[in-house]
Design goal:
five-stranded mixed beta sheet, four-stranded antiparallel beta sheet, globular
């Protein structure tokens, strides 16, 4: 099977007699030593020159790339979905097929090529409507790829472990998980309990984490029944996905870390406020340890290089007793039983954080409301370490 082949190629281990791969996740891998992130952001004036840029893509997945001379950002401009590409020297607007009106998600596959999920098609000339579509940049040119044959597209994601998508059927809420290989989508088994099947539980996938060298991955998101919401996660083991026990949550928004034994999770509490909650996952996604954070911040993303420390970006909720309060952007550093939050000297509301996998520079994208109330995108960059 595809996932088994990935696992063996990545880990260089022979299978057991029953065909199950033998692999200790990321054993011997050299992960970067932890250093406190530098939060001295500088505004990218070249990005400001992109006329009429207004973010409408997912705040967690709107910027992807392979390094300092190759990353992309999804924008909404002039009633058309656009992708801005940085080549190390200049920003350019990519030429896209299929008349995209709104690009909802960007993701990158294990070969470093970007994909885009077109949430709506049609523009101001042709009207809005039509099914979703998938775009894929091959050898520098964007092309339309086939979509999975069942359900509506939900999420894209993956990296070292493969490239995945999810679909759901609106009438029944049934979720399907797919893997891309041999130039097509292949459905992967999803283990659900008889009680879940009988209760017609519906699942939605927010995203995928695929950072393991051993072929393991995590699909995460939310679920619902007639009377409740809950966070949900599935772990890729062998050829299929199995449910992971999850604390009492209403949704899972973001996952980051170097291996399946050391990741951070940004989730929402299952209460009337939907407060953010962070967890540190260890032991192959089985142990969820709560991590203290600032409950007055609405977080959009979390990033962790070593699995023991993390950086979370968000927007502090307005304080009605402080009329002089200015920008809302904040950064919180997380480490097991303690956290520290500080304001960021940037303009606008944080929309997405992308961390260069080669240099560890921080790339923060924000939304800034102009005089007409339109949201204009801004790009800020911070070095990996402060001078």
């Amino acid at each position: 099977m595809f996932v088994l082949a990935l696992t063996l190629a990545a880990c260089g281990r022979a299978p057991l007699d029953d065909g199950a791969p033998v692999c200790v996740d990321d054993r011997g891998a050299t992960e970067p030593l932890y250093a406190p992130p530098c939060l001295s952001f500088t505004r990218d004036t070249a990005f400001d020159m992109l006329a009429g840029t207004a973010f409408t893509s997912s705040p967690r997945l709107s910027a992807v790339g392979t390094g300092p001379a190759d990353f992309d950002v999804a924008l909404q401009s002039d009633f058309a979905g656009r992708i801005a590409h940085w080549n190390g020297a200049a920003w350019t607007i990519e030429t896209l097929p299929d008349d995209p009106y709104m690009i909802d998600l960007l993701a990158i596959d294990e070969s470093g090529e970007p994909w885009a999920l077109v949430a709506e098609r049609g523009n101001s000339k042709s009207g809005v409507g039509g099914p979703t579509a998938l775009l894929h940049r091959r050898a520098g040119r964007w092309v339309v790829e086939p979509v999975p044959p069942k359900g509506n597209l939900g999420a894209l994601g993956g990296a070292r472990s493969g490239f995945f998508s999810s679909t759901f059927e609106p009438a029944s809420g049934v979720m399907h998980l797919w893997s891309w290989f041999d130039e097509g989508w292949h459905e992967m088994p999803t283990a659900l309990s008889p009680a879940e099947m009988a209760a017609n539980v519906s699942f939605s996938t927010t995203g995928f984490w695929g950072g393991s060298r051993c072929g393991q991955a995590l699909a995460f998101g939310g679920g619902s029944t007639m009377n409740s919401l809950f966070g949900t996660a599935f772990r890729l083991d062998g050829g299929g996905w199995t449910a992971v026990p999850v604390p009492v949550l209403s949704d899972i928004l973001s996952v980051s870390g170097p291996s399946s034994n050391a990741v951070f999770v940004l989730a929402l509490d299952r209460n009337e406020n939907g407060d953010p909650q962070f967890f540190q996952l260890t032991n192959g996604f089985t142990t969820w340890t709560p991590v203290r954070s600032d409950r007055e911040v609405d977080y959009t993303s979390v990033w962790s290089a070593d699995g023991a420390h993390a950086l979370a970006i968000g927007c502090r909720r307005p304080d009605p007793t402080n009329p002089t309060q200015s920008g809302c952007a904040t950064a919180t550093t997380l480490e097991s039983d303690r956290s520290s939050t500080m304001p960021l000297a940037v303009e606008g509301t944080p929309a997405s954080l992308w961390v260069d996998p080669q240099t560890h520079e921080l790339h923060l994208f924000t939304n800034i409301a102009d005089a007409n109330g339109l949201l204009r995108g801004a790009h800020y960059v911070a070095p990996a370490t402060c001078p």
